């Protein structure tokens, strides 16, 4: 495979070579006509990508027309391009440095209004630092998350909104520009929890909508 697509370069409004490669693949996969905007991730491209996601069996927030690693790799395997997760942005391996997922996205549980776990949990001690997974800006930072407790929303440079919940402390303000790895706050147990942890969600652009999530990826 000689063509390379960077996941971080695929988001609404993007104009770059990665978008063009994906458009060429979508033209073959679902009949996308991108002649009016080659290399531009506009509404027509987003609709075509959503069609590809539905073809793979995704639905709801999983078929929102915003590429995830799984659907993008399958498109690349079929139409001959390599997918790389890195791009122009700095990124970090975990929103809680040194900690991994302890309760994963998608687990079925009737306790949840959505019927399933809408993010990934990172159990760790109260006061442990949580950091930005990508460059971006703070969409919100307040104590008004209800069941989510004290929370922060990071509008990242890949077009996604990453939500950090149950924090004990917040260290950023709305509108603040953020670099990957920068501390956003500390792990806590605010809101509806059984113990201290970070609940971390991955949302599409726009206002927060409960359960409008996908498996966190960045």
Describe this structure in words.
The protein folds into two domains: 3-84, Muramoyl-pentapeptide Carboxypeptidase, domain 1 (Orthogonal Bundle), CATH 1.10.101.10; 91-218, Glucose Permease (Domain IIA) (Distorted Sandwich). The mean pLDDT is 91. With 218 residues, the chain is of the alpha+beta class. The protein contains three helices and eleven strands, in the order βαααββββββββββ. Strands 3-11-7-6-5-9 form a six-stranded antiparallel beta sheet, with no helix packed on it. A three-stranded antiparallel beta sheet has the order 4-10-8, with no helix packed on it. β5 (136-142) and β6 form a beta hairpin.
Short description:
The protein has 218 residues and is of the alpha+beta class.
């Amino acid at each position: 495979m000689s063509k390379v697509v960077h996941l971080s370069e695929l988001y609404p409004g993007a104009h770059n070579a990665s978008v063009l490669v994906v458009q060429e693949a979508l033209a073959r996969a679902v009949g996308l006509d991108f002649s009016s905007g080659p290399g531009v991730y506009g509404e027509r491209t987003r609709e075509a990508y959503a069609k590809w996601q539905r073809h793979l069996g995704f639905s709801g927030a999983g078929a929102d027309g915003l590429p995830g690693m799984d659907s993008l790799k399958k498109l690349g395997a079929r139409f001959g391009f390599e997918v790389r997760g890195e791009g122009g942005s700095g990124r970090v391996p975990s929103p809680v440095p040194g900690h991994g997922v302890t309760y994963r996205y998608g687990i079925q549980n009737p306790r949840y209004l959505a019927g399933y776990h809408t993010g990934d949990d990172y159990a760790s001690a109260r006061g442990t630092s949580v950091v930005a997974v990508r460059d971006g800006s703070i969409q919100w930072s307040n104590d008004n998350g209800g069941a989510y407790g004290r929370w922060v929303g990071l509008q990242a440079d890949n077009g996604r909104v990453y939500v950090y919940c149950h924090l004990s402390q917040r260290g950023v303000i709305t509108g603040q520009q953020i670099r990957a790895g920068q501390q956003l706050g500390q792990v806590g147990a605010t809101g509806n929890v059984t113990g201290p942890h970070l609940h971390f969600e991955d949302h599409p652009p726009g206002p927060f909508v409960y359960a409008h999530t996908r498996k966190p990826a960045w």
